[in-house]
Amino acid sequence: MAEPEIDLRGVRVLPGFLGPEAQAAMLADLREVARAAPVIRPVTRAGPMSVRITSAGRLGWVADRRGYRYEPCHPETGAPWPPIPDSVLGVWRAVSGSQVDPDSCLVNLYRDGAKMGLHQDRDEGDFGFPVVSISLGDEALFRVGSVEKGGRTASIWLRSGDVAVMGGAARLVHHGIDRLREGSSTLIPGGGRINVTLRVVR
Ligand code: MD3
Ligand code: FE
Fold first, then answer.
1. Global pTM?
2. Residue located nearest, by CA, to atom 13 of ligand 1
3. Does 31 reside within a domain?
4. Least packed by Cβ within 10 Å: which of 94, 100, 103, 190?
5. Rounded Cα–Cα distance for residues 157 and 140 (Å)
6. Which residue's CA is the closest to the ligand 1 atom numbered 4?
7. Partner residues linked to 12 by β-bridges
C-alpha cells in the first residue's frame, strides 16, 4: 500500500513514490547524464558550494562568481545538456499536474557533509509552474520556511524514493538541506545522496 502523502507548509511530500527498482533504474540514467555532462563544484561569490551539480534538459542551472542563471550548454565542455531521462520525466508527468514538460533537470550530489542553506528558487521566468524534487540515496533533513525571510520552519527527513511537489504558494518558500544521515541507504555505491529537481524555466 502507498504511504500517505504529507503536507509540509504547503510542500507535498510523497513518501516512497519510487520503489527500489525504479530508484536503481533512475540512478543508472543519471550516471549517463553525468557521463555526458560532468559534475561541477560551483564557486559562487559566497565561495565554493558543498553540493556538486550537473543538469539535463534544454537549460541547465549554472552558478559562478557572476551569479546564478540558466544556460543551454555545460560551462566547461560547451556541449548542450543531455536530454532529461524518461524515468525522470515520468515522475514529472505523474505528479506535477502540468501539461508542460520541464525545461530543466538539476542534479544535486551530496556527500562528505554537503548541505544547502535556506534559499528561494527564483531564477525561473514563471513561478506559476511547480517544482518537482526526487530524492535518491542517503536520508536528508529537509527544512521549509516561509515566503518571507525569517519566521518558523518545519523539517522532515527525505528518504530514497521520496518525491516532493512545490506548487502554488509553496513555490516561493525558503527551503534547504541541513544535513545527511550518512550510511542510511545502500543505493549509491560509496554513499551520498542525489536530488533531482525539475523546473519549467521558459
Ligand atoms: C521548495 N534542492 O536545488 S529539494 C535546489 O534536496 C534545492 O537538493 C534541495 O533546493 C535538495 O534548489 C531541496 C526540495 C525543493 C526543491 C525546490 C523547491 C524544495 C523546494 C522550490 C521551491 C520550494
Ligand atoms: Fe531550492
1. 0.98
2. 176
3. yes
4. 190
5. 5
6. 133
7. 7, 165
Set of cell numbers at residue 145: 520556511
- Residues 1-14 as b/e (b if ≥16 CB within 10 A, e otherwise) read eeeeeeebbbbbbb
Q: Residue 99 sits in a domain of what CATH number? A: 2.60.120.590
Counted domains in the chain: 1
Which residues, in sequence order, are CB contacts of 186 under 8 Å at separation 6+?
none
Please tell me the distance between residue 141's alpha carbon and the centre of ligand 1 in angstroms.
Answer: 12
Residue 183 forms part of a structural domain = yes
Q: C-alpha angle 31/18/41, rounded to 5°?
A: 35
156 lies in some domain: yes
Residue 1 belongs to some domain of the structure: no
DSSP letter at 172? G
Q: What is the DSSP letter of 170?
A: G
For residue 22, the enclosing domain spans 6-199
- Dump pLDDT digits (tens) for 56-69: 999 999 999 999 99
**Cα–Cα dist 196/53, whole Å:** 10
